[in-house]
Protein 1
Amino acid sequence: MPLKIETRLGRIRIERRIGYSKLYSISMTLFSLALAFLVISMILASLGLDTIQAFLVIFGIFVKPSLLLESVKQSIPICLAALGLSIAFKMNFWNIGAEGQIYMGMIASTGIVLLHEYYGLFHAWAVMPLMLLASFLLGGAWCLIAGALKARLGVNEILPTLMLNYVAILVVEFLVHGPWRDPKGYGFPLSTPFPKYAKLNLVLGEPAYTGLLLSTLGAAAVFFLLEYTRPGFEIKVVGQNPSVARYAGIKVRRTILLGSFLSGGLAGIGGLSIVSGIIGRLRPGASPGYGYTAIIVAALAGLNPWLVMAASIFFGGLLTAGGVLQMSMGIPKAAVQMIQAVIFLMILVGEFVKRYRIVFEKPRASAS
Amino acid sequence: MERLVELRGIVKRFPGVAANDGVDFELRCGEVHALLGENGAGKTTLVNILYGLYKPDEGEIYVRGRKVELKSPKDAISLGIGMVHQNFKLVESHTVLENIILGLKEDGLKIDFERHRGRIIKLAEKYGWRIDPGARIWQLSAGEKQQVELLKILYRGAEILILDEPTSVLTHQETRRLFEALRRMAREGKGIIFITHKLNEVMEVSDRVTVMRKGRVIITKETRETTKAELANYMIGRPVVFSQRKVSAQPGATVLKIVDLKVSGDRGYPAVNGVSLEVERGEILGIAGVSGNGQVELAEAIAGLRKPLAGRILLNGADVTGMDAGRMIEFGVAYIPPEGNKLGIVPEFRVVDNLFLKAYRYPPYSNKLLLNWGKMLEKARELVKEFGVVTPSVFSKARSLSGGNIQRLILARELSGIVGGTPRLIVATYPTKGLDVGAAEFVHDLLLRYKEMGSGIIFISEDLEELLLLSDRIAVMSGGRIRGVLTRGEADAEKIGLLMSEAAPQAG
């Protein structure tokens, strides 16, 4: 049903667009970006800052190779987490705990590194595969808690996934302040720096390339899962209507368990990409909210794995631009966050306008 | 006679279809004008245009001879047009009085409830309705709710009344009373547009009838100058045979045996309370009864969707009590759910996905992990053709199909044997409800064909006519129990009605 708002000046009606062209979609996105930059320049001008210089910095991100690489690097955890969320959202499972699942992935990765460093339980070449496996399993298990609660007891997943974020963040705090603190770290709450074989440098020795390979594989896997496999089909049916799924003989509980596990697992690998690709060790606050950005990315990309990749790189660029603006121009952190928020907001509004049409009607006096 | 409404050359296109393709229609003072057609013929679109819900792409609308442009239902209401939708639009927790005066602008800030109450009672009495303005909507029966809807529009002074399939929710007696009221309104000079796909009702209540098919008007005629057969012919575009079918019962091995089954309903208490039944190969067992007496719960228990509280279910001699839907499917149980458009399909999925909603997990359509889309698409195209599902392609979304085509899609999935061959047992719950004559006839033919192929069939329906037509035996259900089983020879409407009313549950 279209939403209608009556005003003194006439009627405003919001209705769903039945179909729209690709061209319209793209030009709308560009338009909302342009609008975002207009608002940003107003903010910058009001702060007495050099607007043109700031824009050169922002657009420079996508031109200067070193910054582009940095953006790609930043995009990896967002992309992997958003791919996981795409699975969960297809299943109508509102996992908003990617952030916590990312932290659990970081813990698992760091744990494997420490096991090797202190106990030498396995060969150096086995460390990276084991990190991948462990971060996937632990991230998955973290989401599975909410999945199991939903499947067994019918508990809504939103609160458990959200609250477990804080638990995961505090577990990391505990570890780096306590048992996992680097003995040579002058008492700072940091883990031991990762050795070379525990870093994402498989491709050309560069984390961004290796990470890009990882997220491409992830996107391909999610696409394949949802389009060409039995569990993927089941996940989609459960997401559309659990009663119909039951009627079709699909094991709904098992599907929820599997889907939530896979979703958290991908976010867990996202956590790995942070500790071994971006930071190189475990520390508190290692994720500046990648898991939350991933929710926006998954939604903007319409849960399409390939679009998730593209959107992640864009948002990675925004994060990078924020850092550069802060350092090179001395723009306060809060202003940088405002800039990022304006861009988020404009894109979201643009997406809304794409999907819905707002109709203004003349006052009723003219009606026959 | 004065013309109340005239529609000229109405065209309304939706993506892919012209729902109305140059429609001319006329409503006179003092007539009940039936608008007849199959599902998807464009009847509802046409009246929605007259009610201001849709804007026509082409064409003109005249009300009392004056050309008008309807931008919203408000414009329509101010011209004295009122509509009763198929699904009631009432606030359940409010009283009758509150619902009727909701949105009226004549009062200022203070509403004079007493004045309204008196006027509403008087208005209701005029049509032979006894209604308590203080009653809450949720306390009313479907028939009474409909009276409230009618009062709502009459109270606003409507002269042109549109009723969209008004009898689909009514009992036989309620339908009678509605028709009496409609005749009275017509005598007062009001014009009534009565949408239906039931031929009996057209013959019974209307003065004139307009038949629509595929978005066009086929003919408008005086009702007394036409016959049911002729109208059916116009409606479907080919002759329909109304004769009795020859059905020969061939007793065979027992397919389904139910012993003292108890099943709990949604509200907790047992909805099925000690039912024992047997169905043989090649037999159609009809289950008669007013809906809501445990039929759906019984069907769901057999389909594995509801765990029985007690009792046993035997399929081909094997005890399958309490097994889940997946196992029942593997045992060869086909289940045609009630309200197929809700439970039977995923509207956002494509036709091919919906056809393989169950078979996707069995070879050759998949192995342990991977789906074989090539095989599925190939088979889906065959099924669409075989079961006559009208769809632009197997990639179209199921929600774009009409009700009849959705039912065909469900039948193709359940009966075609893409899961483990011809079904051993078919449980069909209200398979023709809401379908037009042509589609219902297709369902009947299909059930008879599978009967001949040896499937045992449980056929749950409210429609005695079709039960008597198809069933070898009829079990009458009420209050969660079987009140009696009649064989083909001895069953008639009267006996069934008598068994139904025996120990019927308290209405309330």
Note: The longest strand of chain A covers residues 10-16.
Protein 2
Amino acid sequence: MILSLVKADFLKIKRKGMWLLCLIGPFGVVALQMVNYGVRKDYLFEQMDDRWLYYILNINTFTPLAIVLGIVILTSFMASIEDETNAWKQLVALPVSKRAVYLSKFTVVSCIVFLSSVLLFLFMFGYGLTLGMGEDIPYLRLMEYSFLPFFAALPVLGLQLWVATVSKNQAIPVTLGVVGVILAYSASLLPDWVIWKWPSLSNEWGHSYINALLGIGFGVFVYLLGMIDFKRRDVK
Amino acid sequence: MVSVINSEWYKLRKSKVIFLLFVAPLIGLFIGLSGSFNAIGAMNEWYEKLVVMNSTYAILFLPLISGVLASVICRYEHQEGGWKQLLALPVTRGKVFLSKYLLLILLMLAMQLMYLVSIYLVGMIEGITDPFPMDIVWKSIFGGWVATLPLIALQLWVSIAFKSFAAPFAINVIFTLPTILVINSERFGPYYPWGQPFLMMNIGGSTEDVFFVPWDQILTVVGGSFLLFFIGGYLYFLKKAI
């Protein structure tokens, strides 16, 4: 049942530009550094001895913002394809459980964002090679800074999907997303418990995997909350 | 014309969307109170607050929220064939577009004023005793508003074109995020329309002019992009198949 729902959801987003967005996100994040390094490569190389690390950190100033905003766009879009044609009623009238409907939406959005992370890894690696920053390529760091932000952003995904599916007016989840991105942008000022800080991978302990683990754990929790609430609500 | 604007206002008045405007002062309070900054060593403590608050507010929040407001103002018409009903009335399409735009920029002005209040509140809470630099604050509040005028025109255009909130927002995000990098560049920064809110609100600029950026930049970049986006959106709406 869940598989066919996911397939149906993928069909619904066909030719709507969502896959393009999945490509533009990671490409844009790397392209900004292409411009940055293109304009002042020598200056940036002098900033830190470990040129690869500095390059990765530069990219990581934009990754959290792109992920948070990408999630906002995707979740709001997943809800509005049903809202626009009043399709929630029809969807729920099918012999599927509401929980599966919610799970399917969650799966589709996570798949797209995860694919974005894979692309981010490829672009980041590819452009890094052309810069000539030394022979020993830090594969582990590259993977850390392309995949861990995705896991750390799962609570934001859960929250945005929840708000987007239960609000009739999509202005509410989008505004929440704008507030979220401001929080993600000011991550260094925030305490560690704020979920919008997690995709930046910084915390008091200095281990980025903590953010990812917290993200998975709390993400599942927010997902369950959203699913239970979605199931109990009357269909609009 | 007045009646068209009135009807736009009636549609918004009772919707909870007005609460959107209150997000701006909340964000202002959050940025203003969340960190302690005393590295600049300016002669007036307000300046430090203004530098930090205005940058986050103008780089990301202002361009993004203006797009959300533009989508909100088209939402009624996108539902259940609202465009057909509205345009079946004895109004011209040009007037509808113009009144939506006018209402939008008034809402943005109201938001800027509420942000002004939040600056003052932050200072009161932190106990800043220096005199409030009213002339500078006005420049940046009003300048930020002028700089968003072209962005609102573009967002109104794409909000009319797309039914969902996500598509106009995506376009907005794609243009807004690079601002963080572009404003650092002396060469490209002044020509990027999405960077103008920051440049106009940043209190570091020259103080002789009316705004913090020179007039020729305002006229060419802000004025030019405004004409492009406004006329583009206007013509698009006149020709759009409803």
Note: The longest helix of chain A spans residues 98-131.
Protein 3
Amino acid sequence: MTALMEEDIKINTEEKTEKTEKGDTMSGRVIVVTSGKGGVGKTTTNANIGTALARAGKKVVMIDTDLGLRNLDLLLGLENRIVYTIVDVVEERCKLKQALVKDKKNPNLCLLAAAQTRDKTAVTEEQLKDICEELKKDFDFILVDCPAGIEQGFQNAVAGASEAIVVTTPEMSAVRDADRIIGLLEAKEEIKSYKLLINRVRPNMIESNDMMSVEDVQEILSTPIIGVIPEDAGIITSTNKGEPIVNDEKSLAGQAYSNVARRIMGEDVPLLNLKEDKSVAGKVKKFFSNLFGKEK
Amino acid sequence: MKDIFTDLYNKVLGFFRQTEEKPEEESAKDVACNRLKFVLMQDRTNLSPELMDRMRKELIELLSKYVEMDKEALELGFEQEGSQMALMLSIPVLRAKEESEIEAILAKEDEEKGSTDAEEAVDETAVSNSVEEVESSADTDESVDESEIIDAGTTSVDEVSEDIIEDSEKSEITDSVKDSKKSTSKKEEKETVVSK
């Protein structure tokens, strides 16, 4: 178990991009979760942030725009409940509300699934924009799960959004692709703010200088950070069970994801310090926290 | 007996040397950071290593008219400073040139330029067949706005000579380029010359 320290680590989460935050509070916020590179945890991030926001009492809808390669339904354990997909909505085989699948546990959470049998051309940017506009009326948050790449799928996913979360890992290829995505987001007028989520961080490897640190990645990309998620084997088991890891309050990755959700809601939450506290005081603290369970 | 002692001595010494002189290898993290910075510089500026090399050569050519510098030690690269990207040029100055020396070089250059212009004019009228060729070569010669270069050159030389007076070791000229990420038209960036 990694000891959690209360002190915030010296990373500026407050630093904002030049673009200002969206001021409109009457309608829902559309946030696209994107990355450029595949396999860095976009869909996992989406499922967990969405679930955390819903747990906090917000009305949340997630849109899977990865047509042909849908997975968000699996992570949420909703794969057997999908009747209509986003393509059915666009081609007017059903109403938008009919296509929304309610989460098993949380009635605040809905999913608009991607079609598995179609490709990225089945939905256009305009159509996605319209869907987002429509959903804004009924939901606090619309989370758009973006496919990997910078082609049409990306353009579609970004079309309706005004905020973005760029998911990356402390690996060269992921950081390079994130840089590319940030460049593209910067050029989009509709995107008012974007932040970085650093996923799959391995504190031990950072400690031994074998992995880039959070500070390194932030320095290279010069983008404010919305969250740091540690590598966690629990992610695999939670995916296997179809239940986002935020539901497991003991999991460090789960805590990190719910902190991200709190930051999205405007709370000032310090980043988890993932480093092992090696001082004597830290060891004593860890001993007692292990003895008496979770210590605040 | 003596041999055993010297052997032991050497072994002990060797042991300490081993621990002390552990070659400091660059960590995987540092390698990653440096490689990334380099590759992102290329991605963001659209400048390949070949183009950077050419830029470097042209800068040397231009600046050595005004100062005598260590051409080998000239460092050129992009650095990220917050959300701004800066083109960093670091040149160890060997010696300030005499005013007369600089004037002579410039005068010679002006003369050459004048004569080539005249030659081109003659070519154009005389050989009408190869007008296109001449034009294209003229284009490549003068594609970089020369007046602009001279302007930039004179401002930077002011900065440089100031630096020479103040500290003769090293002068650094920073061309702070507007972050290419932020501007859509990378090619039309406004460059300001700032001395560090």
Note: Residues 1-26 of chain A have pLDDT under 50 and may be disordered.
Protein 4
Amino acid sequence: MQAEIIDNIRFTTLSPEAIKRMSVAKLIVPDTYNEDGYPIDGGLVDQRLGVIDPGLKCKTCGGRAKTCMGHFGHIELVRPIIHPEFTKIIYLLLQSTCEKCHRILLDENQMAVAKDAIETFVTSDDMDVDRVAETNGKLAALTKKLKSVKKCPSCGAPQQKLKFERPTFFYLNGNKLKPDEIKDWLSNISNDDLKLLGIDYKATRPEWFILTSLLVPPINVRPSITLETGERSEDDLTHKLVEIMRINQRLEQDIDAGAPQIIIDDLWELLQYHVTTYFNNETPGVPVARHRSTRPLKTLAQRLKGKEGRLRYNLSGKRVNFSARTVISSDSSLTVNQVGVPMRIAENMTVPLYVTKWNIEKAKVYVSNTSYPKSINIITREGSRKRVNDTNQEDLLKEIVPGYIIERQLVDNDIVLFNRQPTLHRLSIMAHRVKVLPGKTLRLHVSAAFPYNADFDGDEMNLHVPQTLESQAEARYLMQPKYQVLSPRNGNPLLYIEEDEIAGMYLLTKDNSYYTKEETMSMLANLGIYEMPKAEKNGMYSGKSIFSMTLPNGLNFESKNKHGKVVIKNGLLVEGIIDNKLVGEKGGVLISHIFIEYGPDFNEKFLLNIAKLSLRAAYIYGLTVSVKDYYLSSKIISERANIIKSYEAKALELINSYKAGKLESLPGYTKKSTLEVLLYATLGQARDTAVQYLNKELNQSNNAYLLASIGARGNILNMVQMSMFLGQQSVRGKRPTRGYNGRMLPYFKRNTKDPKSKGFVTSNFFEGLTPTDMYQHAMGSRDSQMTKSLVTAVSGYMYRRLINAMMDFYVDSDLSVKDANGELIQTLYGGDGIDPTLEVIAHQKE
Amino acid sequence: MSAKNEKKFNVVYGEAVGAVAAHSFGEPSTQMVLRTFHSAGIASSVVTGLPRILELVDARKKQQSPLMTIRLDKSYAKNYEKAKQVKAQFEEVLVKSLLENFTEDLKNVTMVLEFDKEKLAQSDLTLKFISGKLQAKFENIDAEQEGHSLKIKYKSKKEMKSARTMFVNMRNFAVKGLQGIKKATVQQDDDGEFYIITSGSNMAGALDIEGVDKEHLYSNDMFDVLKVYGIEAARNMIANELKKTMDEENVSVGFRHIGLLADAMTYGGSIKSAGRHGIAGNKASVFARASYEETVKHFVNASVFGERDPLKGVSENILIGKQINVGTGRIKLAIKKEDLKKVDAEK
């Protein structure tokens, strides 16, 4: 429905004539408002440049504040001024042309080569690459040589030394070139010569780089703000323009009065300074122009540049309507494809309903409703928008015909986009079906939180309502979580069950788990399954058979995990325990199998079923963790002392052998650093030994250990740190050393290698840390916090670069990869043309 | 939905595979470490993790830890002594590492190199050999032997500056071994075969050494690989190194994404970085370049050279508010006139 499509955009330089053509007013008064607060004619807020105050009319187009988009004006500069952004190209041109005849410094032979090169360059499409590269190389070599040419090949004039000094000064043999001299020089360069330098004379004549008139942007571009006190505060650009005009006026007066040359030159340079900072207040070599409050002025270049600049902030990033944001929370009774939307949001957001003869009755219902779900606006065929209220409701109801658009409130099953920042991958925006719920938070299924990397500790998420049928269809059929199960990164499922659910799944499907008839019935009824599995001995039902009720009929599947083989035969789990690897974060092979073989809808159901079922199983088991699980039995306490003692002994051994000079140094290390490396490595193993010990000592009757060992939550190391000791701390990958002179804390001996004074923490969280241990542990924690924050910054920038480098790539119909210009990147995507989400599955099939 | 035919797994037309690849790198890269590791056995530290990924993506000319892995020919592989002999040919011995002292006389363009006797003996070198090597490498010099020192005179009395740089180069010259190889170590793999790991990369030189298995020479310096084996080899090396680093960090990223990035960096025949001086900085679109980095510079240059933005890429279309040209945005739907009539008829 795009009426006018921009095909391409050409960049050129503005000529003085073009500036005058664009301008609606020549500005002459270096001021803004008069005493009455009225815009001065010919001043910088001249009403011909547009209006922003409500009530005033634009003198050029007659429009009001909202309808007039502003008009350019101009300032006539008394003396020419060098445009500061073009100095580099001016310098190049001056170097490449003769100071006398202004011809390019090439002899006829070179000229022929250059011409040839330009031609190949322009028509390079059908040329072979080698030739283009060759001629380009020749051209580059020629232009490079130009600055060292001593004598003009055309007129024979000797070339004097040209010097450029930042920001805008040019010297010929030590004499300063005035802007008007440069202008004359540049305007005498012929179009043919410009062509040889690659400059398009139709787009740019070099003399335009020297400004004689300055374009003044409309006031919409530099609006003034009225402070609470009634005082007006002008935009930075206006301030700068006032100064330019003031100096320009003084220069004119002085010239007319016949002031001495020095004074004129000084003013001229001052004018140059103001114009320079007007364009770019960060020009190297120029003092920054400041506001009265010493804040640097934000001039033209600063407006465009950088993250907060016009391009990245306003043009690449757009603000939208029809969006909502609030805190998220979990809701296990939703499906992964739903999002719970608070009533307050549903009432305020609208979806357009395009009235046709088939849905006109439905549309009228929305209009006639006086409470939710009602219509907010109607849009006529002509496109005028009317708000529906009590008084006009009746009339509008009669008015509606096909072709109207009704903006109705959000209702259940509308499709919306749901997003969490940082939007790191495509699964950070997915489409969900609306479920309007009481409450004030957005709700989503716990399993859907993972792709967003969301948790419910106060995270907020955004919601967008697509407004066209095309976008709604696209969202509905491509972007729903049920279609996005597999990760494009490695083909593993992103929707799976976690934590308690994994634990429940283990408890349910482990061998010898049997449930009574009542338990089985309640578990299955919770899923909406009203059939019973086959009963086994004495009327009990095995967990495996209960789990099998969620599987598709006739499924045959085999896999292996750390508990052994898993065999599903004809839809029945015959052998093995369902764990992380099958339905969780560590691969989720069963989920991806079901997704591919039985489709997204069945998979969605399966996922919800196993989540509910496993939670029931955990509930029946009574899964809970208590302090008791971390309790220090006398056995653990004595073993802890043993481990610590043995590692301290090992450290001492190393230290002694170092002192005796027996320690062999590792390649590339000194003896001293070898000792450090070995000590750090040895003491770091203490934890591992403790983990091994706990693995031996504890069993699954300890729920904390159970959770950790089956990979539901936490790991054994956490238990070690709670009930045994924290172990070796590290700062920058080494034992912590910094602090006082030769020691970390004043409680240690100086220059000792002793483990305990170098970050070997022997106390634990259960008993609490000793003061020195706490310091050492804090050093390690601080180090890891600091690195973490640095990594996010570094990796964020790398990500931006990668996206910018590759975002244009797409797959063509022959499965090749091409970039925006149709250049071939890969002949067959990935070497096999396979969809990245299906990579794992496709390779299994082979 | 049983998947019988192959086509089912194919990518769909228009899929924004570049963006997907970038996501696949960017999303997990926050989990990677920012530390370089010291690996036992090799003298220098080996860059891993995020810094290594950056090094590869940036296509840095000077990387922090260039390494070569050299497999040996069959007759050498099982023999430790022979392996050691090969190794000895790798390690560079710089002139300056043999010196006890040196004096430069720039007025007379002479330099006196005083060699350490012990060091010479250690590396099995004679002064005669060194002076021969130096004279072969550097033109226009005279070398005179005086006791344990070598008096070098620069014959052409051109400029003091060129003499000075030459003297510095001379002291940094490797009389023995390969230029740029700081250290070499012999390692043994699980099959009992010996191989050599060097810190520093010089593939061209390594190929000339006898006993080196030329088919299994590996370097992690992409420009060295490019120079010796060409762009395809460099592409594979970049992809493999990226994959290796990702795997070391336990980040699983499909090889197609890694391969696409490597291809994007190399499809032009030379290695381009992903940054502003590489792929992103050479785009056809002015807007795409300006919205990335160095905004003003790109606009100014575009106006001087009268550039035309064809508005084909993603960035510039977002900027001007057009539909983007990847994914579903590439699909244009039309309805047949006859079908349209059917709709009208129903009315």
Note: DSSP finds 26 helices and 28 strands in chain A.
